[in-house]
Specification:
Structural class: mainly beta
Strand content: over 45%
Shape: globular
């Protein structure tokens, strides 16, 4: 199983970024996928889940209405569209699979860093 995030970078407040998570080594369309993040000096935070078909999506209140999770099961890619970014969204963003407990997962990517700053 391999999960590789990309798309992070520096963006001004109010801007947008789209993160990607390229998945390999498993049947991507069989699994719920998750986005989590960790801001500097803070605990890990769950952001979003998307079910295997992409028909059901769940979001943390902190990102609801601004972030959208989607997936391309033909190409094994998970996305996180982030709009109206705020400085407090600065964090390392991870995709993950197979929850084993509260904010614990069997598989993680290496993360992609997002900095929201003017």
């Amino acid at each position: 199983v391999q999960l590789v995030e990309s798309g992070g970078g520096l963006v001004q407040p109010g801007g947008s970024l789209r993160l990607s998570c390229a998945a390999s080594g498993f049947i991507f369309s069989d699994y719920t996928m998750t986005w989590v993040r960790q801001a500097p000096g803070k605990d890990l935070e769950w952001i979003s889940d998307i079910n295997p078909s992409g028909t059901n999506r769940y979001y943390a209140d902190s990102v609801k209405g601004r972030f959208t999770t989607s997936r391309d099961n033909d190409n094994n890619i998970l996305y996180l569209q982030m709009n109206d970014l705020k400085p407090e969204n600065t964090a390392e963003y991870y995709c993950a699979r197979d929850p084993t407990g509260h904010l614990q997962y069997n598989y993680w990517g290496q993360g992609t860093h997002v900095t929201v700053s003017s």
